[in-house]
Amino acid sequence: MIRLLAWLIGWVAPPGAHAWVQAMRAEIAAIDDAGAARRFALGCVRAAVIFRARLTADNPQHITTTAIVPARRLFLLAICGSAAAAIGVLYLAAASAPQSLIIVNTLALLLGVLLVVGSRRVRGLRRSIVNGTAVAIAAVLLLTAVTGHAVDGVARWVQLGSLSVQTSLLLLPVALLLFAHRMNRWTTAAMVVIAIAIALQPDRAMALALCAGLVALLFVRRRPAVVIACGASSAAMLVTCLRADPLPAVPFVDHILWSSFRLHPLLGVALWLGSALLFVPLLLMRSTNARNVCLPSGVCWGALVVAAAAGAYPTPVVGFGSAAILGYFLCIAALGALTTDSDEGQQAMTEHSPALRRDGDRVQSQRTVRGMMGLHTVHAAVLCTLLLVVGSRRAGGQRATDECARSAVKKLEGPGVWQPGPEGRQLSLWPDGQMIERPETGGQPEYVGNGSPLVAGRLWNWATYVSRPTMTIYRPAVARSRAAIVVLPGGGYAAVAMDLEGTEICDWITAQGVTCVLLKYRVPQQWPRDARGVGHPPARQLPLQDAQRAIGLLRARAVNYDLDSRKIGVIGFSAGGHLAAAVSNAEQLTYAGTDAADRQATIPDFAILLYPGRLWDSRSRAAGLALAQWVTISTKAPPTLLIHAMNDPVDDVRHSAAYGLALHEAGVPVDMRFYAKGCHAFGLRATSDPITTEWPDEVVRWLRQLGMLTTSDQR
Amino acid sequence: MTRTRTPSPATRATLFLLAEHEDGLHGYDITRHAGVSAGTLYPMLARLEAQGLLTAEWCPAIEPGRPPRHVYRLTAKGVAFTHSLREADRVAAGVVTRPRALRLQS
């Protein structure tokens, strides 16, 4: 730490202060107490910044140009941005977001700070540079819209290594700043192209931000250029409002301004505060010129915050989005580099004498050379590149989410009771008159729905608000075994995936000559989240009661259904995988039994879990494979087969790994099949990932080895 | 670069401290005894040196293996300037004609 600070002092301080750098370093080395040395070193870093600022202020080359925003203000802006980004990183850590997100955001913050420091030596951007940058930004945004990495027809991202970057968040606020600074043909054209790009992408939040920023600018500067840009951006907003924005909310990205309060009220307050830090300082500029230049980008950031609060849009800087963090610091860096009309000033000064003009040109070119080629800038460039490389390498976790991205379609849901086809016989789990605990239906009747995300290009259907659970028995055309498999679909205990992880599984099971029993268990039942965002099971797990009841019923009526009561197994998917584990280890009935079915053993004879969740203690990522505290392992648990993809972005493969190892420790036979790819919730729908086509055969082989698929058992 | 405005409290504290230590002081000692942070101190020292009020001298460390440290001493001009600051203080406090001891008694 101290060595890093000592290095930083030399890096920040100008070459002229070399002796002072040496003196400070020697002093730091001479302090014995580590704490005191650290404090002293921190002070020295500040001193180095002051040396740098003084050099810039004293430099006669800069006399003709005055910064739009004074250095002190700029420093404050950078502090505000850093604080906002730091709050965001804090949130990610608190919400146990993937480590890669946290690392990438921290790196973006560091990079941003370096950018601002680096910008201090490029003072006074020439008009051609401003125009060129604006046009280049417009080109990049347009290219993103046309050729960018598209998710569901929405193209807002470019792939940089393994990072996908939302270019509009990165570049649009800077473009607004440049436009507000210099309104001419070039920048106006750039704004129009940007508006078109945003409309093409389409991005409602960015269109709103662009439009809001330009309208605000129109209030202070009524110029034709602003009117044109305003018109273009309004049209863009209209287009994006007319086009559907189909992307679903992404955890740790969208909606966090509200959901954070559930994690901890203080965290929610901090997020709002951080969001305010983004735009309030930009709007509170002292000089008129600074106010005019900062206004549109300030309003733009504010509008983004509003959009994030109102809809499923990313919360800028705070939370997800290395692009937004970098974009914010780009704004500050640009503010640092912009000076008030230095070109005009210099032109006016040098117009009178050709000699002076030559001199002026030389000064200008010297300044450019100094700015661009300075040793420190090279340092910064090398460091930035290194950080980016390391960042994208470490962001491997993010890759999983990208390749697992699925098409989202509009969710359709309405009252209706799920019904099986003619081949299934649906039975109530509980006698119709019997009172059973209601799930959290909020008084709704049962719903059926379908929608996103598409699985292998097809919709999937669910049932929810299920207050009267059922099981549906599908008999095979040709029975090759007296075994039965109870299918426990997933759906996060919010819904039950009745086809993807239900009827489609039963079709396959009956084709194997085995009886299939599809359980429609009671949902929704929330798992209350603790301060860290980890859900904990409710005291009475209604789905578990239903699963136990179904197994009891099947065993009690085994003779009626021509089943072997010792060959009743379960197959569970996702949340249903957790349910399969729960019923495997529950030695006691979890509800008050009343009839003969409730006196049967309820532990199944085999259990197959596909991509289960809620089993591993997700806080133990560093510690390894600890089971979640609510999972108890019974030595009576049946032989278990676990199937999981390593790149599952929803339920970490560690849920399976931890559960499998714990069963193994308890002496339960466990088979595990882990695949590199396959993502989550694939059911039986084949994709190019081998897991989706190989798992059914694995299950059949495994069941055969267990002796569950033979008919040679006693009647 | 010369400044004519009255020095800041931090500068005064540093000047007074250095005036009392003719043998000179290390930067860390000044931060501890004058209550000035390192961030304020070094730019101030650089300015005072530029104004010719103090000298910075490299002195080898007492312990071997450590880098030499800067020792700061007031120049004759610096001593005179500090003295004038003290006098100005006394005038402002209205005690210029009275010795210090008397003021304490009163």
The total of helices of chain A stands at 24
Main sheet characteristics of chain A: 8 strands, mixed
Unreliable stretches of chain A, pLDDT < 50, 5 or more residues?
A: 60-64, 341-375, 392-401
Distance, first to last CA of chain A: 75 Å
Which structural class matches the secondary elements of chain B? mainly alpha
Radius of gyration of chain B: 16 Å
The DSSP helix count of chain B reads 5
Measured between the Cα atoms of the first and last residue of chain B, the distance is: 43 Å
What is the chain-wise order of helices and strands of chain B? HHHEEHH
Helical amount among residues of chain B, as a percent range? 40-55%
Percentage of residues assigned to helices of chain A: 40-55%
Q: What is the topology, as strand order, of the major beta sheet of chain A?
A: 5-8-11-9-12-13-14-15
Compact overview of the structure:
The complex is a heterodimer of chains A (715) and B (106). With 715 residues, chain A is an alpha/beta fold. Chain A has helices at 2-12, 18-30, 34-58, 71-94, 99-119, 127-147, 167-181, 185-200, 204-220, 224-242, 256-263, 265-283, 288-310, 322-337, 342-350, 354-373, 375-394, 396-403, 499-511, 542-556, 558-561, 575-585, 653-665, 690-706; strands at residues 149-151, 154-160, 163-166, 412-415, 424-428, 447-455, 458-464, 470-474, 484-488, 496-497, 515-520, 568-573, 606-610, 640-645, 670-675.
Structural descriptors:
heterodimer; A: 715 residues; alpha/beta; 8-stranded mixed sheet; 4-stranded antiparallel sheet; 24 helices; 15 strands; B: 106 residues; mainly alpha; two-stranded antiparallel ribbon; disordered C terminus
Give the helix/strand layout.
The complex is a heterodimer of chains A (715) and B (106).
Chain A: H1 2-12, H2 18-30, H3 34-58, H4 71-94, H5 99-119, H6 127-147, E1 149-151, E2 154-160, E3 163-166, H7 167-181, H8 185-200, H9 204-220, H10 224-242, H11 256-263, H12 265-283, H13 288-310, H14 322-337, H15 342-350, H16 354-373, H17 375-394, H18 396-403, E4 412-415, E5 424-428, E6 447-455, E7 458-464, E8 470-474, E9 484-488, E10 496-497, H19 499-511, E11 515-520, H20 542-556, H21 558-561, E12 568-573, H22 575-585, E13 606-610, E14 640-645, H23 653-665, E15 670-675, H24 690-706
Parallel strand pairs in A: 9-11, 9-12, 12-13, 13-14, 14-15
Antiparallel strand pairs in A: 1-2, 2-3, 4-6, 5-8, 6-7, 7-10, 8-11
Helix pairs in contact in A: 1-2, 1-3, 2-3, 4-5, 4-12, 4-14, 5-14, 5-17, 6-7, 6-8, 7-8, 7-9, 7-13, 7-14, 8-10, 9-10, 9-13, 11-12, 12-13, 15-16, 20-22
Chain B: H1 9-20, H2 27-34, H3 38-50, E1 54-59, E2 69-74, H4 76-93, H5 100-105
Helix pairs in contact in B: 1-4
